[in-house]
Amino acid sequence: MAEPDYIDGDNPELIRPQKLVNPVKTSRNHQDLHRELLLNQKRGLSPQNKPELQKVMEKRKRDQIFKQQQVEAEQKKTEFEKELQKRHQMLEEMEMENQKITEEQENKPEFLKVKGNLRKMNQEISEANNS
């Protein structure tokens, strides 16, 4: 590789290039961490934190085992337990629907509530007159 031509000249007017300082390497935290890692490596100790890939692989393995246990538990359920679970699900859905209806009624403006009450009263009066 060829040397730049400004190195050969002894011209005092030229500004000599200097290597930039890396702020990360000059920070005290980085130096302490680097020193600790070197000492641990000399002792043969591995760092306390696992590599990200190893963490992801362990998490996948745990998830896979958990899914297998769920499938096995589902297979062990009797017909009675399955039917109970279906009914419980249906009851929860009905409760959710009732809750939505009550929330909608509570959020209605006052004049709509009064209008509904008047209709009910008119129907009751008309039924009473017809009887």
Automatic annotation (TrEMBL):
InterPro entries to which the protein is assigned, alphabetical: FAM107
Coiled-coil blocks: 77-107
Keywords tagged on the record: Coiled coil
Pfam families referenced in this protein's UniProt entry, alphabetically: DUF1151 (PF06625)
Top-rank taxon: Eukaryota
Record's protein name: Family with sequence similarity 107 member B
The species this protein was found in: Xenopus tropicalis
Gene: fam107b
